[in-house]
Amino acid sequence: MKVISKISQMQAIMKQERMNGRTIGFVPTMGYLHEGHLTLLQRARQENDIVVLSIFVNPTQFGPNEDFDAYPRNFERDEQLAKKAGADYVFYPDVEEMYPRKMSVAVTVTERVNVLCGKQREGHFDGVATVLIKLFHIVTPDRAYFGMKDAQQVAVVDGLVHDYNFPIELVPVETVREKDGLAKSSRNVYLTETEREEAPALYKSLKLAKERIDSGERNPEAILSFMKDYIQTHTSGIIDYIEIYSYPELKEIDTLEGRIIIALAVKFSKARLIDNMTWTV
User: Are residues 257 and 145 in the same domain?
Assistant: First the structure.
């Protein structure tokens, strides 16, 4: 496994790999790798000749109340995990390398961002789109891998790839879960013992909602009301949102049909947990 920190070197290596007829799978991250990231790497390893992991804490996606400097970093640990997971290259640039001067062209995401977590993080997805455009041009992957834990990000990337004709296959990978169904997250360690026992109710509410929809319920409000009651009854958490949209468009729908997403966020004492399910009704 090779660690590359310069854009020009990374581009030259990727050009040579493509000339040699190799397919490239790409997993973009901000580092501090966890099991979700490793699952993406393992999937990329299965489906491509070459696997590239990027580690870059992107300053343009942090809002005014989000501390870029406090974001956790541990490159030595990440490097060992990436190697074990089968990465061939780690692209690890610094901020000066990625943003050597003030950008002369601004990227603004206008769709799929004013709902779910995006409505509380104005400008966040502009920063995500900006760095992904740069990374896609640097790595030139055949496939890019993103976790469905952040389904809104996957929807935004889907729009980016299609709108700007990137010759890239977007590969969404299902959320990695604990045995009891709780979506794996670094935030789970902040749950109290009681909250940890309650937390699987979030995924349970999604599964029960799916069962009702698959059995014929088509009224979004009825499903939302059921889920709110279930979570409030089975947890001490405070519901931030439970929402239903078309997917990946993230548009409001009056009747549950086509491909949909049900997504939720619940605040516990020291952790805010998110989860979702997508499927075709």
Answer: no
